[in-house]
Amino acid sequence: MEIGAFMFVTDYSMRPDELARLLEERGFESLWVPEHTHIPASRRSPWPGGADLPPEYWHSYDPFVALSAAAAVTTNLKLGTGICLIVERDPITTAKEIASLDFLSNGRFMFGIGGGWNAEEMANHGTNYRRRWRLLRERILAMKAIWTEEEAEFHGEFVNFDKVWSYPKPVQKPHPPIFMGGDGPRTFDRVVEFCDGWMPIAGRPGQEGSLAEKIALLRRQAAEAGRDPDNLPVSVYWMGRPQDDTVERMAEAGVDRLIFGLPSAERDAVMPRIDQCAALIP
Hints:
Layout: E1 2-6, H1 16-25, E2 30-33, H2 63-72, E3 78-84, H3 91-104, E4 109-113, H4 119-123, H5 132-148, E5 152-155, E6 160-164, E7 178-181, H6 187-194, E8 197-199, E9 201-202, H7 208-224, E10 235-238, H8 246-253, E11 257-261, H9 267-278
Parallel strand pairs: 1-2, 1-11, 2-3, 3-4, 4-7, 7-8, 9-10, 10-11
Antiparallel strand pairs: 5-6
Helix pairs in contact: 1-2, 2-3, 3-5, 7-8
C-alpha cells in the first residue's frame, strides 16, 4: 500500500514546495493537487460535496506550476494531478507541460484526470458539458500519440492535427500513468480503454464494502477486455478523518494507493494531520 497526500494548495495555504518537502521527509509516496481554472460567480452548477463550495476551489494554483515547485525541492516524491480537467485544456499544450514536468522531475509525474462537474466553468472554455466525455477521450488519445510518436498526428471529431514534432518526451514509458477519476456507469469502460488505473473518492461511513465490490468488478472487466487487472492499480482519495485501521481496511478492499486529504491551510493547521497520516504509513 502506497500512501499519498492531497491538498488544494492555494494563495493562503502552505506553499506547494514547503508541503512537498515535509511529505517526502515523512515517508509519503506522493503529492496530489486538483485543478479549477476559475469558478463562475453564478454558482448554478451544484457542488457534489454539499451546499457551500469551499473557497479553495477558486484560490488554487495551476496544478503544473504547483507541482513544478514541488519537484524542484524533492527527489523521490511522486507528483500527481487529482484531477486535471483536460476538458478545459488544449491537448497539445498540456502534452508539452506534462512531458516537461515528467522529464525535469526524472519520471515522477502521475496524471489523474476527470470530466468535472461545473458546466459553467467548462462553457467558459468552449466545452459542451454533455459532450465532455467524448472530448476527454479524444484529447487523451491525442496526447498519448504526442508522447509516444516521433511524428504524431490525430484526426478525430474534436481534435485534429497533421504530423507534429514535440519534445521532450516523457521519461516514463510509454508515458506517465493515467488515472481516471469518478465513479459513474461508464467509468470502468474508460479506465479499461485508455487509462492505467482508477481514482475514486472514499472516506464515508460504510463505503468499504461497495468499494471492494467495485474494485473486483473493475478487475473482471479488465480481464474480459484483455487487460492485465494487476496493471490497473486503484488509488483512493480518503476524504474522511483517518483512523488507526483505515490503511488496513483499504488494503483488504483491494486499494493500491491511499491518498489522505489535507486541509487547505497554513502550516500550523496542517501539520497535525500530516503527522497523523504519517503514523499510518506501513
